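Quick start: what a row looks like.
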Amino acid sequence: MEFDVLRTRVSHHLATGRAAQAVDLLKDHLQEHQEKPEFWVYYASALLSLHRYADAESAARAALNLSTEQPQAGKVLAVALMRQERRDEALQTVYWLINDWPEFAYAHYLLGMILISSARSAEDRKLARQATEHALELEPEDPDYYQGAALAAQLSGDHRAALEYLRAGLSIDPNHQGMLRFAAETKNGEKLVGDRGQLLRGLLASDPMNEGLHEDFAETFVEKQGVYRNRFWVFIPLLACLASFGALAEGGARFIFPALIAAVSGGFALWNMKSYKSSIKPLPAGYIDDLRSKNRWVFRALRFYQGSWAAGLAGALLACFEATRLAGVLLLLLGVTGSQLAGSWIGREIAGVPQDPHDAKARRLFLLRRSGALASGFWLRVLLVVVNLVLLGLCAAGDARLASVPLAAVGIGLLAVAIPLIAAQIHLGFSGNAFAYGLALDSSSKHRTGALIRGNVGAIYYIGVHLVFGLIATAVAVVLLIGGPDEFDSTDPPATEHEWSEQEIKQLKDSLNQSPTPGGQLPSLPSFPTLDLP
């Protein structure tokens, strides 16, 4: 087969996503065209599409061995090296491309992408932005370069510039899938593309076999399930507070609070159901069944939330009455624990638990995302703690055991943040943990060591605050639970009436019959003179 015909057929296979057929076709004509460097360039590109990065590297090097005037081979080689996490070699290849072909826009774009995916300092972020913007200047009609410039701008924290690049790129190619998906995840990106769920549904209709779109659907659904955790931080302690007021009520008023507890629980359940329905509304028909099979832990967590709601309702109703108060408190505490456990499961799924536990890179990215999610929302947690402390004060007016519920919510909630952060800190190490890595990105390479030290000190302080206060709140909650209803009573307990025995009563009578003097006789009184009355 003539090489021009072979090239046309291979290009068509690659353009239509049939890289395996392209590789088979090239293998069949290996002996015939193996002396042509262009043949190895196509071979390397096809292998790269199949994620066979080591083979793609070998094919690209074969092309460059035949002729160094092959910038496309250098491009494939740089990508293959980067996919194998050989960053320095990939950068060396890109710099060679830029030096020999300074007008090769893709080389500048590739430099930016490598630095974005493996940024280590403020210089890397700055150079990534310069490289992507220079590629855009060389070829201003390529929408991929607009996406690259938007990525670099977002990495630098310039969200406004990122939106402007996306807007300009979408004006050139309104159906560019990469920019549309990136815009849906960018801050204020809904101004460009609307609701993310509706956007994904439209993209899936035009490209139903795109695996990346299916993953985006799952990620969007899972992210929306994270809203329940903060709600349960307040819901169950609020029920405990209402039960505490119900315990103090007398007469017919005691039945008002169980009705109020049922009404609050029903409204809370309707609120959560509405949130869940809104999260599945954009999903295509039948898609929820696929999500159940792929994200089992999310749906297990949702069942735990349902169980926590039921335990909270039942516990609050039982706690309104003296005879069943202890059982009610235990159910409320069970609801607090179950809701925090469910929130932790969903948080792990949002961070993206790696399918292969031995994949070190995927594990690192998971721990970084998990740490970042736990480290965010600090002031919201402070607000939740304050609310629970207020509920603690209200519960203290009633039974001390009920006061253990808001304290347990504070303690378990803070420990659910501290413990995963400690595990991530240990696995990621001194320079790889989220706190140190984030500061290193904002500092220059000269001050990297100082940034890492500050990051680790900040991590220890942040974790310590959650750990210490979490342990204190949990310990006090246990003391209140064990100590009983008089734990908050500052007055001395009333003295119990002494029960007299028959022997003690007889001794008391004998002592009363005895003379008060040692001799047993009454003392003589002095004589008084008689008075003569008229």
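That is the whole record. Confidence is low (pLDDT under 50) at residues 487-497, 515-534. DSSP finds 26 helices and no strands in the chain.
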